[in-house]
Amino acid sequence: MSKSNSPNHRYGESEENRHSSSGWSKRTRFFGIILTTLSALTFSLNALTLKLLNHLHPFNLGVWTFLLMTGFSALWTVRRKCKTNLETGNSIALLPSVDKNKTIALLWLRAFLGVCALTLFFYAMKFMDVADALLIDSTSPIFVHIFAYGFLQEKCAISQVFATVLAIAGIGFVARPPLLTGDTQYNADVLIGCVLAFGCMLCITLSLIVLKFLETVPQDVVTLVLGIWGTVQCLVLSLLLGVLQFPTHFEDICKIVGTAVLFFVGQTLLTVALKHEDAGPVGLLRTTEVLFAFVWQFVFLNVVPNIYSILGAVLIMSGVIITLVRKWMDTSGGGNTSIN
């Protein structure tokens, strides 16, 4: 690991600390991998909790979830500012001074896309299994490359096109059309769930594209804006639809708090992991979220995946792995066969 890429160099530590032993470097690298795996575990548990709350209206659930996220993010932001003030005596700005108006607009756009993604995922949980919904959402790394090719003029390798075909084929298996199952009628719930999960994936993809322009903005600020927007949006829609209710059952309250905590912890673990590991391995390990989801729904919901879900998982995971391995190779100076 070079000096410029080492965590110690990034955090501006002394020259003595930068020349730490190779054993510490290895532990640091494994630390990033462990954090990524824990992040995937946390997100899969979050999805399971949402499934257990599918008796609540998604907008009503969103109000309390985003409100709690706002509180957690605000506390984190205040802590960071106070810590910086004590250590340096200087106050830090929440946003970069360059292109502040553009940054604010992108923050709200990212928040809107994030809220739409979570809301669509809430709805998808009502119509399909946890693992199947997460499986479709996990195709976002593939479609990020396709969108980046169209909007950011980035190169698109032939392997990424092949990965996209695999992902679409995998989604087709998860959707279980009559052509595959031999049934005379389409399962409407599965179709609706797939459409909602696919919409969630598109929002996640666009959100990741927007995040490329927000790399200089601290994670807690991004999450804070997401929480504020989500609270307001879900509150307005809940009032318009007349579905706003305060959870009265203690079990539901615990699950809602758990959902917000798991989402916030998962985001934090992922952010810290990226400080210790490259994006390629992190993205690859995040796909274990789907495997965890299959285990949780079997243990807690007694749902056994059918052959179509398994085949879809194999195709989609293959596409995701191809995409992320290709990205890792490009970052390391590998091949460059691409569509210009």
From TrEMBL:
Gene Ontology cellular-component terms listed: membrane
Which compartments is it annotated to reside in? Membrane
- Membrane-protein topology: Multi-pass membrane protein
Give the residue ranges for region: Disordered: 1-23
**S-adenosyl-L-methionine: is it a keyword of this entry?**
no
| Chain intervals with Basic and acidic residues compositional bias | 10-19
**Which ranges of the sequence are coiled-coil?**
none
Which regions span the lipid bilayer? 30-49, 61-78, 104-124, 130-149, 156-175, 190-214, 221-244, 256-274, 283-301, 307-325
Q: Which keywords does this chain's UniProt record carry?
A: Membrane, Transmembrane, Transmembrane helix
One of the Pfam families matching this protein, by short name: EamA
Q: Which residues form the EamA domain?
A: 31-174, 192-324
Name of the protein in its database record: EamA domain-containing protein
Species of provenance: Folsomia candida
